[in-house]
Predict the 3D structure of the following.
Amino acid sequence: MGGQILTISHAAKAFGGNEVLKDISLGVSKGDVLAIIGPSGSGKSTLLRCATLLETFDSGTMRYGDLAVIEDGRYAPNDVLHQVRSRFGLVFQNFNLFPHLSALDNITLALRRVQGKGRAEAESIASGLLERMGLAGREGAYPCELSGGQQQRVSIARALALRPQILFFDEPTSALDPELTGEILKVIRDLAAIHMTMVIVTHEIGFARNVADRVIFMAGGVIVEEGRPEDVIDNPSNDRTRAFLRNLDRK
Amino acid sequence: MVLSLAQGLLVSTEIFAFTLLFALPLGLLIAFGRMSKIGLVRQIFRIYISIMRGTPLMLQLFFFYFGPYYLLGIPLNKLGLFGVEYRFISVIIGFSLNYAAYFAEIYRAGIESIPVGQYEASSVLGLSKSQTFFLIIFPQVVKRIIPPVTNEVITLVKDTSLAFALSVMEMFTIAKMEAAAHTTMVPFIVAGIFYYIFNFIVAWAMERLEKSLNYYR
């Protein structure tokens, strides 16, 4: 156990008068695979967006290791936030690859422009990752020439290239055809096997049970239930969790 | 006659080239002002665009030509630059400021059409705001705005003839003089053919550019 990579305590967020996150506290340790499940509108995506600095918490505290992002509702200065951004990666639901750049350039861009690596080094890192993602030889392909599953694998490679301490996934298979979800889930499973620290917002309950070592069930902006997957998913103690899972079974 | 028209065409081409040279970058700056987070700045540029688009270009040319004398009392013959008559300079100022307003709105539409996910992906990767704009957003904007920019550029070729109002020796001014001197329609027809060929080349070049960016969607 290498200590906590991410700690959030008593964080809250409202859009207008609508409280989307209420008093959220959670911690992620090195090697954790945490799945966040819950109905849409439960706040799980907002939580992920706040954790990745795409949205801001209104109050509370969040730290990445020794770096405080927000302390009792006050955000750190920009240079600290910039440093924090190098500690996490995010894989989006709709990939958000850069359409004008090849698969290779999508990955090398931040390596070169943010981390200042040379072209040769950046390209060898990128090629290695594409190969790991089963995309060897597709370096020159543009996003529009790749299937959804392939695009998502490029975007995972793009996030991994920066060697984040923690990788977030925002419903990584929701934009994919059902027959393509398997290839993404396999990639995530492989990452779990090498103890990549991950937080995954997902609707794939079976997958969550399978890959996560901790599951959080969110509803109405609060963490309703948290624990081992076999407890939360198979034997939920809370009525709302039970209702949510029952609904899913029916579908 | 064809020779003097060709000399006029050279001047028309100069107006065309200088206008694009100044108006394309200036339009981007105006677009930034128009999208500024500061309400007052946004309002100023909104008014600027509104005036530039809402009044005739010919009137604006007169404004920039006579303005220094009527408003400030500066004799126009003292305003030349690098041996270039102020007459020509004022045409370039007028055209550039006018076309920049149109380009600004095209840039703005292009910039606003880029999905927010592109900004979010850039942010998460740690790109700075200027890196995000110049490496991610602007290249995609260029591709999207080629068709409307082509329209403006083609209009500009024809609009250069408005400089006749300030007696700049561009092609249309010369065509008028030749026609009057020889009481014939031929100069107008030849000038028309020249304008058409000019625009044919412009359209062809822009199409090439558009195709060269077709490697992605």
